[in-house]
From TrEMBL:
InterPro entries: Asp_de-COase-like_dom_sf, MoPterin_dinucl-bd_dom, Mopterin_OxRdtase, Mopterin_OxRdtase_4Fe-4S_dom, Prok_molybdopt-oxidoreductase. Pfam families: Molybdop_Fe4S4, Molybdopterin, Molydop_binding. Residues 1-52 form the 4Fe-4S Mo/W bis-MGD-type domain. Its EC number is 1.7.99.4. This is Assimilatory nitrate reductase catalytic subunit. Keywords: 4Fe-4S, Iron, Iron-sulfur, Metal-binding, Oxidoreductase. It comes from Glutamicibacter protophormiae. The keyword Nuclease does not apply. The lineage of its organism: Bacteria, Bacillati, Actinomycetota, Actinomycetes, Micrococcales. Gene3D superfamilies: 2.40.40.20, 3.40.50.740, ADC-like domains, Dimethylsulfoxide Reductase, domain 2. It is an enzyme of class 1 (oxidoreductase).
Amino acid sequence: MAVATHCPYCALQCGITLDAGTTPVGLSGRNFETNGGALCRKGYSAAQLLEHPERLHSPLERGADGVLHPVSWERALDLVVHQVRAVQQAHGKDAVAVFGSGSLTNEKAYQLGKFARLALGTSRIDYNGRFCMSSAAAAGNKAFGLDRGLPFPLADLDRAGTILLLGSNVADTMPPFVRHLESARENGGLIVSDPRRSATAELADTHVQPAPGTDLQLLLGLAHVLLAEDLADTEYLDARTWGLESLRISLASWWPERVQSLTGVPASVIRQTARTLASAAQAARSGGKPVYILTGRGVEQHANGTATVSAAINLALLLGLPGTLAGGFGTITGQGNGQGGREHGQKADQLPGYRKITDPAARRHVAGVWGVDPDIIPGPGIPAAQLLATLGEPGGARMLLMHGSNPVISSPNANRTAAALRRLDYLVVSDFFLSETAAQADLVLPVLQWAEEEGTMTNLEGRVLRRRAALAPPPGVRSELWLLAELAARLQAPTVFNADPREVFAELGRASAGGIADYSGVDYTSLDAGAAVYWPCPAGTPISTAPGERSGTPRLFLERFAHPDGRARLEPVYPQPAAVDDADLRPGTISLVTGRLLEHYQSGTQTRRVAELQQAAPAALAQIHPDTALARGISDGQEVVLENSHGRVEATACLDAGIRLDTVFLPFHFPETQNANLLTGDAVDPDSSMPEFKHAPVLLSRLERH
Ligand code: SF4
C-alpha cells in the first residue's frame, strides 16, 4: 500500500510516497510544497536503508573479550538500569548524561527531555543541534524574541526579486530548494556569499567571496553603507525597532575600504551590493518583488556565529524587511527535525514549548503537565561541546545515553571526543546502524528507522508534518518511545511515559501550551487530513484542511515581533579576534572550510551505506585552488595531508579555480583519517556555544608515503 510521508534526511522534508508492497520497497517523489515532487539523490535512494544488510537487529553488549555480542532486550534494559543506578549512586545524578538529535521526531525529542529530567533526574542533556542551529536561534531570539528558521512559508521566496544567501549551498545540500530561487534568478537578483564557487554560487548573479571567518565584517560593511548613504528604511525602524543609535555608533568605522582589507571583497562590490539591496527593498515596499536575506551554516558555525547572524538580521531590519510582505530574514535549517528538535526540551537550558528552564512559571506549567513537583525538575545543564569534552573527567558525566547522533564524526576536535567517550564508565548508543560512535559503545540498542514509525517532524518553515509508518520493523528492533517508557518504569520514574506517538504528541502539545513554540492546537487527525499547520498554533486555532490553505501562524511578526513591546532589537556587534589556537598561528597555513556534498548527509552513517551514493562520492576530496596547489607541488588527484594542532587528515586533491587562494574545502562525512573534524577546534560562541567549524588554520602538503 502506498503511504505518503517525508524524506528521512534534511529539513526540506520533501514529500515522498513509499510502497511497501513491492520488493524492494518503492519510493517516489510526492508533490509537496517544498519539493514540487522532486527529490535529490539522497532522497531517491533512501529506501535502500530499510532492508540494508548492516541493519542492527538485536541489542549488542560488549563482552569481556572486547567484542559486541547480541543479547536479549530484557538483559539490555536491565544493564542500562543497573549502570544508571551504580553510576548515580557513586557520583550523583548528573553523572548520567543524555545526548539527543535534530533528527529525532518531535515526540522522541520531547520524551527524551522528559526522560532525562524525571527518570534520570539529571540536568545533563543537550543535543547535536547545538552544532547546527544554535547561533541562528540565539540571534533570532535576541532580535525578534522568537526563533523559527523561516518565519514565512518557503513558497514566499517564489515571488522574490532579490535574495542575499549567506553561507548556504542549497544546490548540493537540498537541491529541490533551488526552485525557490528561480524568481530571484530571473530577476537578476540572486546574490550568494561563499568563500568558494559552490554549486549555488554558480547560479548566482553576484558571487561575493569573503575570506573564511570574515562574514561578520562583510555584513558590518554592508550595513555601514546603508547608514552612510541614507539608504535605511527609517520609517520602519522608527515604528518597529529599538536600538538604531547604538547600532549607528557600532557601524561607524566599518567603511568599505577597511572591510575590503579584512574580507578580500572589493569595496566597490560592497557598496554596489548594499545599494542593490536598498533599491530592491524600496521597490518592494512600493509593491515590487520582495527581498529576502537568508543565512546557513557557513556563516553560523563560528565562534562569532551569533554576532554574525545578528549582523545579518540588522541588515534586514535596516532594509525594513522582517515582519512585512516586502520580504524578510530567515535561516535555512539543516537537519530533518532541526526546528522541532530545538523546541521540545532537548536543550540543556530549555523545557518544552521553547521555555527557559530557569523560569519559575515555565517550570510550574511543565511540571503540571508531567504531574510532578516543579522542584524535582533539575536546573540548566551544560551545552553539547562542554558536555562531550568533560565526559569521564571530574565534574563530567560518567555514563552517556546517545540517541540519533554520531559525534565521533560530527563533533569538533573529533579526536578529543573519541577520547572522552573512552573515558566513560558506560556508553549506550541507540541507532539503527553501527555508527562510528556506536562502535565504541558498551551497549548498542537497535531502534526503528523513519519508515517504520509514526510521528511528526517540523520542517524549516515551522510547519508540522506527519511521518508515517509504511512497513513493519524487523524483529528485534524497538521504538525509542517504547525504550524510554520501559526504562522509566524500571527506574521508577515519578510519572508515566507513554509509548504511543499520538499520545506523546498530545502531551507535547499540552506541555507547549502558552510557550513560544505552542503546538497545543495541532493534532494528528488534522495533519492526516492534509492541514498545513505552522506553529505557534494555540489550542482552539481554526484548522483548515482545504488544499492550499494554511493554519496556525505561517507568517510571523506581521503585526508585532515577539518581544513584550512588539518591537525588534537592533543588536550592535563588535568583532572579537579570531578563535584560533596560538599553536596554529604559523606561517604557511590556509583556512579549512568544512561542508556537505550532494551525495552525503551529516556524518554519513546512512548515506555511506547506500551503494550508489558511496560510489559517486567514496572519499574525501580536498578542494584547492590550482595556484595554492602549485605552490606546494600538489597536482590534481594527488594525495594530500592537512594538519594542525588538533589532528591530521588525508584526502585527495581536487583542483578548482573557484575557491579562494587562502582556502581549502573538505566534506565532513568521512571517517578515520578522512574525518574533517579531526582539524576543527575547541572554541565556541559565547552566546550559543556553537563550535568554530568553518574556519580552522591548517598546513597543506603532499602526502609522502615512505
Ligand atoms: Fe529533499 Fe533533503 Fe531528502 Fe534531498 S535530502 S530529498 S533535499 S529532504
